[in-house]
């Protein structure tokens, strides 16, 4: 009986998010006095913009912090809608905007609102691990569509149609800029993929949490292409607000009430203090652009230094703050290599098997969201480590 009572549900039997395990291992090294350079987690080193922190302080000084409505503060939703006009030139009704507890809650709400248990949902491989883990926990089937250099590491309309012909898909989720690759889709490619999906009756979800961090060309939003697309965004990356846990969705109008009901029951509302800070974060754009320029400098440090360190092959570094490096010349086990790199050189990276269960053993993901001096030191440590073998 004790064994039965202690047994976890089958739906909880999902793979771990390996990057979090790497963070825990790095924390133990730091607790013992080691200095770890963190390239494993997609977390900006900079704080939230001054405007956000000041607004939060004012709200705390005011006193009571209560619930908001389930969809979020009306002023925040209106400010997010205004952002789409300012940034992309598209008119968004604030009624379609939903505040979420980070993008993670956005994915959960979207999957619950759009899909039934057993539904097949396509995602790019390599891709962000919680996509497939959340879908699996909800009883859906993640369908990995392989990407490669020929497709510039994005899902093509042809690949989507082929997967749908094999067995019907109910949805497809695409990220641009993407995690872990940092690659982006050009506007015309995104529009063609959305048109293909909708023509086949496949719901389209666009992960846009790295928008604003685009270097090769401006990122395009699915909200400007189709009113039927679901867009998920976050204040975590561009606005440096990871720990505030606040994001948003732009939903097709007919589905807003479904998401509202889910939010009412699952979360009640997003933390009010975070919503207040998020609304004010839009006033810190100049500050955030300076942070972005720092990422661009870090990008050059890695793309220029890693080939000399021994890692000359990596995917296109279009946006976000990740570099996905091919380590196949050194190992067939990127997880073991990442452990050694952390234990011996104190550089924390994420093995590609977190993002790609098929080919990830040949890759490492390196985040360059830290300080420039740490990026230079990381390149030197990696070079020394690889030369030692």
Kindly report the average pLDDT value.
Answer: 95
Regions with little confidence, pLDDT below 50 for 5+ residues: none
Strand content: 5-15%
User: In angstroms, what is the radius of gyration?
Assistant: 21 Å
* Count of DSSP-assigned helices: 13
- Going by helix content, strand content and strand pairing, the class is alpha/beta
Brief overview:
By secondary structure, this protein is of the alpha/beta class. 43% of the residues lie in helices and 13% in strands.
Task: Write a structural description.
A seven-stranded mixed sheet has the order 2-8-7-6-5-3-4, sandwiched between helices. The mean pLDDT is 95. Helix 8 links the parallel strand 5 and strand 6. Helix 4 runs parallel beside helix 10 and helix 5 crosses helix 6. The relative contact order is 0.17. It has 389 residues and is α/β, with parallel strands linked by helices. The protein contains 13 helices and twelve strands.
């Amino acid at each position: 009986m004790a064994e039965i009572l202690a047994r976890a549900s089958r739906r909880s039997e999902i793979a771990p998010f390996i990057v979090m395990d790497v963070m825990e291992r790095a924390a133990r090294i730091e607790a013992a006095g080691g200095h770890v350079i963190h390239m494993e987690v997609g977390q900006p080193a900079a704080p939230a913009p001054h405007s956000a922190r000041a607004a939060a302080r004012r709200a705390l000084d005011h006193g009571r912090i209560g619930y908001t409505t389930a969809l979020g503060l009306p002023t925040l939703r209106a400010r997010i809608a205004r952002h789409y006009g300012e940034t992309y030139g598209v008119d968004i009704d604030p009624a379609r905007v939903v505040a979420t507890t980070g993008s993670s809650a956005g994915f959960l709400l979207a999957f619950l609102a759009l899909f039934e248990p057993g539904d097949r949902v396509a995602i790019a491989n390599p891709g962000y691990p919680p996509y497939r883990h959340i879908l699996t926990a909800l009883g859906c089937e993640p369908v990995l569509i392989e990407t490669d250099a020929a497709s510039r590491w994005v899902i093509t309309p042809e690949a989507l149609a082929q997967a749908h012909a094999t067995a019907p898909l109910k949805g497809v989720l695409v990220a641009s800029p993407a995690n872990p690759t940092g690659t982006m889709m050009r506007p015309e490619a995104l529009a063609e993929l959305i048109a293909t999906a909708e023509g086949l009756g496949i719901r389209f979800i666009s992960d846009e949490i790295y928008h604003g961090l685009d270097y090769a060309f401006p990122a395009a939003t699915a909200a400007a292409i189709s009113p039927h697309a679901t867009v998920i965004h976050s204040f975590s990356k561009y606005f440096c607000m990871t720990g505030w846990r606040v994001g948003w969705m732009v939903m097709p109008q007919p589905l807003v009430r479904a998401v509202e009901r889910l939010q009412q029951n699952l979360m009640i509302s997003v933390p009010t203090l975070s919503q207040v800070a998020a609304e004010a974060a839009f006033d810190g754009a100049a500050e955030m652009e300076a942070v972005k320029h720092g990422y661009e400098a870090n990008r050059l440090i890695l793309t220029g230094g890693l080939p000399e360190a021994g890692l000359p092959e990596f995917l296109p570094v279009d946006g976000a703050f990740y570099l996905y490096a091919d380590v196949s010349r050194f190992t067939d086990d990127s997880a073991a290599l990442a452990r050694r790199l952390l234990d011996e050189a104190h550089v924390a990276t994420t093995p590609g098997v977190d993002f790609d269960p098929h080919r990830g053993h040949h890759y490492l993901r390196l985040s360059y969201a830290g300080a420039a001096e740490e990026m230079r030191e990381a390149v030197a440590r990696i070079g020394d480590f690889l030369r030692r073998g």
